[in-house]
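chain below, 82 aa
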Amino acid sequence: METRIGVVGIVVENRREMASRVNEILGAHADIVVGRMGIPYREKNVSVIALIVDGSTDAIGALTGKLGALPGVKVKSALTGR
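prediction:
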């Protein structure tokens, strides 16, 4: 199966309420996560997470779709071409 490499940027606007749900989704998709950096910006009650991913378009889309469906979670991705 062909995979794509990319970066997924995640901004969690209400980190206290959403952190556990975001981490649950990330854990469920851990097989495509190569690396993760998360920075809590406590003064703004926001967290910023950057993921390096390597997976099929469907797997990456499932991850970003589930995260983006959460209230107060914004997701953007940039992937290599096929």
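Residues 15-28 form the longest helix (14 residues). The helical segments are 15-28, 57-68.
thats it, cya
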